[in-house]
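Narrative of accomplishments. A recurring question from our advisory board has been how the design workflow behaves on a single, concrete structure rather than in aggregate. To address it, we present the structure tokens for one chain from the evaluation set, followed by the sequence designed for it. No filtering or post-editing was applied between the two.
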């Protein structure tokens, strides 16, 4: 899927479709009235209000790494002396064909089976995918999980959330402010932010400032700010010729990142979000890179979608979350776990 251009402008087409958007938003509200399953372990949800990518996956990874930094290498979190939490991730597995619940095994599963994001996340923590998130949560709990991170389930009522973190891309914001199909919203902004415990605004400093200036946020809603930046892998990008491809929510962000690193971008190919990457496409991209004497690069999410036989043909550029105030992340973790601890 690629977001229609009119989703960013409140023009004639958006207004024409607005009655359908109102129906969509109302359907979301009705769905959210359903009673969810409350697990005996805390559930932290990382979601958004819009269709398409906002940077949730690096946020989930940052949360897992924050937990790992406090604990032993097996990702067990020291909450209090003698008390630990084994943190698992639950995902719908968008783009995958398995209905689940199934625990992702990166040595056995492909992106076509479990989705690209769960496959990427499985390098950081145990991941469960299922169409029924409550079933996935129960499976994770039965397997020993003592806490869950729910990836992209803010509008899904299957599991009761103990804390919800909503992520927004500062550059695109909430688009034209209308619900699908008139705009990018899954639900009205006021309704969604009214349920959120935290809002994380992602983007360059100027974009974040612009978003806050044009967006009315609920009083008292805690706000964090940050940016998705490349991880330092030791690669020297300055002047390096590259052909890049990306099938993420906003491929141009990836291309801008490469230019910011100093790479000479001699080819840039924007694919649809979650687009399958077959041998024919890769053969064409590899040929272009050879002809231009360039390195073929992609995002880490696209890299896991490559056919197994083609792994290593494109260099992934991994990214990470950089928060303006990292201590605020500790507040999130503390709020999730504190009231779940025994006496």
């Amino acid at each position: 899927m690629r977001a229609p251009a009119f989703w960013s402008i409140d023009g004639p087409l958006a207004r024409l479709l607005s009655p359908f958007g109102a129906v969509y938003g109302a359907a979301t509200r009705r769905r959210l009235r359903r009673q969810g399953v409350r697990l005996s372990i805390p559930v932290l949800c990382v979601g958004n209000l819009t269709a398409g990518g906002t940077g949730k996956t690096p946020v989930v990874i940052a949360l897992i790494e924050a937990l790992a930094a406090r604990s032993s290498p097996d990702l067990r979190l020291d909450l209090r002396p003698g008390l630990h939490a084994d943190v698992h991730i639950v995902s719908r597995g968008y783009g995958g064909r398995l209905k689940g619940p199934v625990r992702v095994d990166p040595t056995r599963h492909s992106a076509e089976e479990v989705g690209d994001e769960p496959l990427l996340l499985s390098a950081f923590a145990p991941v469960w995918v299922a169409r029924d998130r409550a079933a996935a949560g129960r499976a994770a709990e039965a397997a020993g999980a003592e806490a869950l991170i729910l990836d992209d389930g803010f509008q899904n009522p299957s599991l009761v959330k103990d804390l919800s973190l909503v992520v927004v891309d500062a550059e695109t914001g909430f688009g034209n402010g209308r619900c699908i199909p008139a705009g990018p919203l899954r639900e009205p902004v006021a309704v969604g932010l009214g349920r959120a415990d935290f809002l994380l605004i992602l983007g360059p400093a100027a974009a974040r400032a612009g978003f806050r200036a044009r967006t009315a946020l609920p009083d008292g809603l805690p706000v964090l700010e940050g940016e998705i930046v490349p991880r330092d892998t030791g690669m020297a990008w300055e002047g390096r010729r590259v052909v890049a491809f990306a099938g993420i929510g906003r491929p141009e962000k990836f291309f801008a990142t490469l230019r910011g690193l100093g790479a000479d971008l001699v080819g840039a190919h924007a694919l649809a979000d979650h687009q399958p990457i077959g041998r024919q496409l890769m053969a064409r991209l590899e040929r272009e890179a050879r002809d231009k004497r360039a390195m073929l690069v992609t995002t880490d999410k696209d890299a896991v979608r490559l056919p197994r036989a083609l792994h290593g043909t494109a260099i992934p550029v991994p990214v990470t979350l950089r928060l303006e105030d990292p201590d605020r992340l500790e507040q999130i973790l503390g709020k999730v776990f504190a009231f779940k601890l025994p006496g």
